Amino acid sequence: QVLLVESGGGSVQAGGSLRLSCAASGDTFRLYRMGWFRQAPGKERVFVAVGSWRGDTTIYAPSVKGRFTFSRDNAMNTVYLQMNSLKPEDTAVYYCAAGLNRGSEYDYWGQGTQVTVSS
């Protein structure tokens, strides 16, 4: 079992920055990849970024590439999403997710953290 807890959400003005954290606990040795997703009001949850749990591989959605940065601290069992140059359209609940293999599905999800960007 893996527990994911996100933090770092909040309210900022357009152009501002936030850093989200996702702390993993439990069977972290089983983790293979960590993803970030977001869900805006009235919309489906969409992919934001994914990174390998151990290694340097990262992939970003086109809408955030160049503004968001995925990073990891394996010693702390934590992944981060640094979000710069935030836009009102980035407003959403952000979720982290853990995958135990190379497949497209994720096995564990966090509870989400709200990010609100005002214009």
Walk me through this protein's architecture.
The chain starts with a strand and ends with a strand. The protein is 0% helix and 55% strand. The strands form 2 sheets. Strands 2, 4, 5, 6, 9, 10 and 11 form a 7-stranded mixed β-sheet that branches. A hairpin with a 5-residue loop joins β5 (45-52) and β6. With 119 residues, the protein is an all-beta fold.
User: What is the ordering of alpha helices and beta strands?
Assistant: EEEEEEEEEEE
Roughly how many Å apart are the termini?
40 Å
Percent helix, as a range, is under 10%
Cα-atom radius of gyration? 13 Å
Mean pLDDT, nearest integer?
96
Give the strand tally.
11
Explain the layout of strands and helices.
Blueprint: E1 2-7, E2 10-13, E3 18-26, E4 33-39, E5 45-52, E6 58-60, E7 68-73, E8 78-83, E9 92-99, E10 108-109, E11 113-118
Parallel strand pairs: 2-11
Antiparallel strand pairs: 1-3, 3-8, 4-5, 4-9, 5-6, 7-8, 9-10, 9-11
Gist of the model:
With 119 residues, this protein is mostly beta strands. Helix content is 0%, strand content 55%.
Features:
119 residues, mainly beta, 7-stranded mixed beta sheet, 4-stranded antiparallel beta sheet
